[in-house]
Amino acid sequence: MTPSDPGQLLDDFSALLANDPGALSTQSGYYVPNLHGTGAEDVVALLDRAIRRSHSDAQLYYFSGQRGTGKSTELRRLEILLNGQPGTRAYIVDALDYIGDTHPIDTLDLLLVIAAAFADRLSHPDALGSDQDPHESPLQRFTHWLGAEVEITGVTLGGVKAEFKKQQQSIVQRLRTFDLSRQERVMAECRQHIGQMAEAVRRRWQAPKIVLMVDSLERLRGIGKEASEMFDRVVKVFDGDMNQLRVPDLHMVYSVPPYLPYLTNIKALVQLFMLASVRVCEPPSKARRAPRATGLDAMRQVVERRCPRWRELLSEPALDRLILTSGGDLRQLLRRLLLDTLDEAAFALERLPLGEDDPILHTVVQRHRVEFESLVVQDEFALLKGIAEQNALDLRHRDELSTVAHFFDVRAVLNYRNGVDWLDLNPLLWDLIARWQPPAAAHDRGN
Question: What CATH number should be reported for the domain whose range is 39-275?
Fold first, then answer.
C-alpha cells in the first residue's frame, strides 16, 4: 500500500485514536493551545495568576472539570507556567496511581496518599537532586513513619506506589480501625510530613513558593448501590473537611469532581477553577444551541493535529456534525464518535470522504444516542428537562444531589463557560428530553 491509499490512512488514524496517549505535554504535536479560550476564559491562566499573586503560606485551590475536557493536560501546562517563574517549584502527583477509582475515600486516606505520592515524586533526580543524605531526608523519615504508625511495610524510596497498590485493601481496613483521636493525630502527622518534604524542596531550590497539584480525584466514583455512598464521601472530604486538606507553607491544588461547585457552597470557601467542555455552541443568552464557529474550529484543530489528511476520510460538514454531537467533549469525539465512524467506513472505502448525510454517520450517532438514553431513567427526566430549559440547576429535593452527581459522571450533563458558567444536556439526550412531557401535562393535552 502507498501512503495515499485511503484504506491505510483510515487504519492508521483509527489505530491512533484507539491508542489515545491520554494527558499531553504542551510540547506534544497533538496539543492545541487555547483550546478552551484565551484571556479571562483561560482557566489555567487564571489559576496561575491566583497562585502567583498569593503571599499566604497555606493556600487551597480546587481545579475541576468533567472527564474528557483535558484537565490532566492543562495541569501539566500549569506546572510548566509555575516552574517558569523565579522562586516557584511545582509538582504534579496522580492520586489514582496509588488507589483505585472506586476506593472508598476518606480524608485520612487522601492525606496518606498525597504524602506517599509526594515522597515518590521527590525521589526522582530532578526533584531534590542526588546530594541528599538518604538517612536524614524527609522522604526517609516518612517511610519509617509509614511502617511504625500505619504499619505499611516493605516501602522503599521510589517504591511507595507499588506497595500502596499491593496493600491497598489492608491499608483501608487498618485505617478504619483507628479511633477519632488517632485519626486526627495521623492526619496532622501526614500534613507535617508533606510540609517537611516541601521545606526540603524550598531549601534545595531556594524557592519560597512550593505548589503541589493532586490529579485525578474527579474520577472517584461508586458503582451501583455504592454510588450514593461515594458521593457522600467525596462531598465530606472536599467540602466538610477542606481545612484538613490545607498544608502549612504549601500551595495545594486538588482536582475535584465537577458536580461539587453546583451542589455545595465551596465557591464561597475556596478558590475554584472550572475547565469546561469546548464551547461548540453559543451561550443560551446569545443563540440557544447554535453552532459556535470558533469552537468548531478549535475541535477541528484537535483532529488535524492527529491526522492532517482527515479530509480524505470525512468532509468538513461531516466532522462538524460529529463535533456538535459530542457537545465539545474531547473524549466523546475522538474515542467514540470519530473512532466508530472510521470503523464503519473501513467497510465502505468507496464512499470516502464521508458526507454529512452519509448513512454511516446516522448509524453511529443513533447507536450512541441509544446508549446515552439508557444511562438515564424516566424518574430523572423532569430534572434533566429543567437543566435543558434553564441551563442551570434548580434542585427541589436534597435526595436529587447524588442523581446530579451521576449526570456529571456519565456526561449526561455538560458544563460550559462563555463569560459565565452554564449547563446543558449532552446533545445525544436533546431529542429524548425535548419529547418528554410531565405526566400531568401530557394528560391535559390529551383532553
Answer: 3.40.50
Cα–Cα distance list, 303 to 9, 309, 401 (Å): 14, 10, 36
136-163 pLDDT, tens digit each: 578 888 888 888 887 776 666 666 777 7
List pLDDT tens digits, range 350-405.
999 999 999 999 999 999 999 999 999 999 999 999 999 999 988 777 778 888 88
Q: Give the H/E segment covering residue 416.
A: strand 413-418
> What are the phi and psi torsion angles at 133 (to 5°)?
-75, 110
Domain residue spans of the chain: 1-26+286-447, 39-275
Query: Residues near 258 by Cβ (< 8 Å), separated by ≥ 6?
Result: 64, 65, 66, 218, 274, 408, 415
DSSP H helical segments within 62-157, as ranges? 71-83, 107-122, 125-128, 138-145
- Say if residues 345 and 24 touch (Cβ distance below 8 Å): no
The predicted model scores a pTM of 0.90
What is the rounded distance in angstroms from the CA atom of residue 264 to the CA atom of residue 333?
A: 30
Contact yes or no for 368/340 (Cβ under 8 A)? yes
Burial of residue 380 (number of CB atoms within 10 Å: 0-12, 13-18, 19+): middle
| Residue that the C-alpha cell 516493605 belongs to | 154
